Amino acid sequence: MKRAIVFGATGGIGQAICTDLANSGWSLYLHYNQDEQKASNMVQRYSQLYPQQDFIPIKLSFLTDNKGLMEFVNSLLPINAVVFSQGITDYTFLSDQDLNKIDQLVQVNLNTPIKLTSLLESLLIKNDFSRIVYLGSVYGGNGSALEAVYSSTKAGLSRFAQSYAREVASANLTVNVIAPGAVDTKMNALLSSETMAEVKEEIPLGRLAKGTDISYWVRTLLDPNANYLTGQTIYVSGGWLI
């Protein structure tokens, strides 16, 4: 049985990823931080549709200390793949940004994923093939004003994945980043309708991405045949900011 853990499973992109992977035969750990009910509903739905697979909700705050992270990883069953689809942002000028918010952005988007990767490695390399996929952003390649810290964390993920992929390639563990452009999720719903209209005009394909536009590429990277692609950042942006 192939099993993946999807961090941020209850988010807009995370839900699409879970649905795509469940439909492709994956058993799943569905990670959540606060939305336990949504995670439970997803588990119930997938269990009815795919009774031969396992679906387990699991809670973790990405602000947890090192001991808590170790305890979390030690509680897991064997896994073949990890998808980091969690993420937070804060739209503001750096000079106005609360210092605690800066710490939170860096910890949730970059530090904790790196720590979890370190802890999960021993589980992953026991398999014939294993995969790690991080959700980055176009802003990791083209920094965004009002999101300087967010942009730096996403750029850091790309450089980390590129470096770490070289460490574990011989263990048949591939490490890649999917970097979406503007996606129709709650994160972008924070922007005004006027701003979003301007963004759509800048996107050559003329629309925001749907969750399924992103989940397709995650599912593709998790396929056993995708074993020669590692250390890459793949921009799924509709032609925007590339």
Summarize the structure.
The chain is of the alpha/beta class and 242 residues long.
CATH architecture: 3-Layer(aba) Sandwich
What is the 3D form? globular
Quick check: average pLDDT?
A: 94
| Helix proportion | 40-55%
| Domains, number | 1
* Topology-level CATH name: Rossmann fold
Protein name: 3-oxoacyl-ACP reductase
Family: Belongs to the short-chain dehydrogenases/reductases (SDR) family.
InterPro entries: NAD(P)-bd_dom_sf, Sc_DH/Rdtase_CS, SDR, SDR_fam
Would you give an account of this structure?
It contains 8 helices and 7 strands, in the order βαβαβαβαβαβαααβ. It has 242 residues and is α/β, with parallel strands linked by helices. The protein has a single domain (3-236), classed as NAD(P)-binding Rossmann-like Domain (Rossmann fold, 3-Layer(aba) Sandwich). Strands 3-2-1-4-5-6-7 form a 7-stranded parallel sheet, with helices on both faces. Strand 5, helix 5 and strand 6 form a beta-alpha-beta unit. The longest helix is centred in the middle third of the chain and has 26 residues, at 99-124. The termini are far apart.
Key features of this structure:
242 residues, alpha/beta, Rossmann fold, seven-stranded parallel sheet, 8 helices, 7 strands, 45% helix, SDR
